[in-house]
Amino acid sequence: MTDTTNPNTTPPLVYCAGRFSAPTREGVEENIKRAVGTALDAAAAGAFPCCPHSNTAHPKFEELQPYPFWIAGTLELLRRCDAILMVPGWEGSSGARGELAEAIELCMPVFYDIDELQRWLRNWQPNQSPGPLIHLHRRLGPNAQRILLRVAQRLAAGTEYGDFTQGKDWDREAQEEAIDMAVYLAAKLEVSRA
Question: What is the CA radius of gyration of the chain?
Fold first, then answer.
């Protein structure tokens, strides 16, 4: 866990991804409130929350730049973070779904609730970023990449990975290659089963 008493310790940056847009300004305000609540939970757990909802809460921001500007900026902010924490209700947001897809592409830890984040924080160390390892999965074929994602998610959650090829047209060699890569990445990234 991050040592919050040591001013030389850098806390992990955790991106809070959730719904922002709504048909009414009141709906936007509710979405901001939900995201800020999640960000406060992340801060209380010892992570530094990156909450784009807080950065752009003022209604004037919507008038200053078009939607693609904000999407590009928030994706860049996400890329600089160590993990992503999904805000309740994120499923209804195309932006949050895109952020989740980007985090998965970057092999970034993904958390769907504060308890998962707290478990991860117990073992987090500064500079444990995967660095060049995050792109190793691109050496695999598309079937092996899909299997790798499922295996890595299962390993990170502390569950068995089993046989992902049942009922699918994935070949056994792709599955074994993906499992080997997932185990390798898990070891390198010190994925904990806690």
Answer: 18
State the DSSP H helix or E strand holding residue 14, giving kind and residue range, or none if neither: strand 13-17
Q: Residue 85 belongs to what domain range?
A: 13-123
Instruction: Tell me the per-residue pLDDT of 120-152, one tens digit each, with 9 for 90 and over.
Output: 898 877 655 444 344 444 455 566 666 666 666
Token pair 């992990």 is found at: 12
Reading across the β-sheet that carries 48-50, which strands appear in turn? 48-50, 13-17, 83-86, 110-111
H helix count then E strand count, the chain: 8, 4
The answer to whether residues 85 and 17 belong to one domain is: yes
Entry pTM = 0.65
